[in-house]
Known about the structure:
The protein has about 325 residues and is mostly helical. Helix 2 runs parallel beside helix 7, helix 2 crosses helix 11 and helix 4 runs antiparallel to helix 10. The two termini are about 15 Å apart. The strands form two sheets. A two-stranded antiparallel sheet has the order 1-4. It has a domain of about 220 residues. Strand 2 and strand 3 form a beta hairpin. About 70% of the residues lie in helices and about 5% in strands.
Amino acid sequence: xxxxxxxxxxxxxxxxxxxxxxxxxxxxxxxLLTWILIxxxxxxxxxxxxxYGGLVSFGHAGFFGLGAYAAAxxxxxxxxxxxxxxxxxxxxxxxLAALVGWFAxxxxxxxxxxxxxAFAQLFYEVAVKWVNVTGGSDGLPGGVRPHxxxxxxxxxxxxxxxxxxxxxxxxxxxxLVARRVVASxxxxxxxxxxxxxxRAAAIGIDVNRHKRVALVLSGGLSGLAGVLFxxxxxxxxxxxxxxxxxxxxxxxxxxxxxGTLYGALVGAIIAVGIKEILSTxxxxxxxxxxxxxxxxxxxxPQGLVRLAEGRGAPSR
Length: 316
């Protein structure tokens, strides 16, 4: 079955899930689904850079966290407007990705990974030290949760059901944008660069430009996921910029399957589920997730969705 059909089949139960709250299950499970959607979008954003462009990043938490902080600060100090907060978050994360790309894009492999890691850690330190703006290590409340729409179509984002519907709509929109990008001539050129930069350059592809644009798009989508996090949680903290979150999203993307986009959601379901189950037993739940990652890499390195599809080759 094609990815588009799987997406359509998944959308129906996801869209009606809030209607069962209070009847079939508690709001806790809807909250869990919202987390899965947010981290699924975050992992899909990473997949755009890593799975399709071969850009190894250990600093995507920087884009996610900056998007979250920009949204929270916008809601606190500018206006209780979701669209303004979303714009601020996406633009801030995209701008950081452009800055990182300007410095790092000529490097490859571990050098690119370390540069992205260094930028994320730099912003983590800024968030910890700049107490007057970021709240320091105590974090920053997000301010008033905004409303969307008008009249009977108003979404109150303090309502878990409304927040879930917004997250679902934006995750689907983000997925469709990413899918359009990878199916375009730009996306095909990006895959060619991933396979061989030398061959891509030899046929006239501007390798550095394509890699920069891919990183900016990936950073912007990561920032959008951060915006959703900030509004859903109504709180941001420096941990959103910390390297552990960068590692976690890499695990999610690899678990689902790099170069698929929709595999990110599968990885998010597994990772968030494991976190919720194991965090009630131990604070060291990430160790178990890491162990699962090792098993997956050894047994089915192309990810769970490729295992289910019976395919082993990277997406083209």
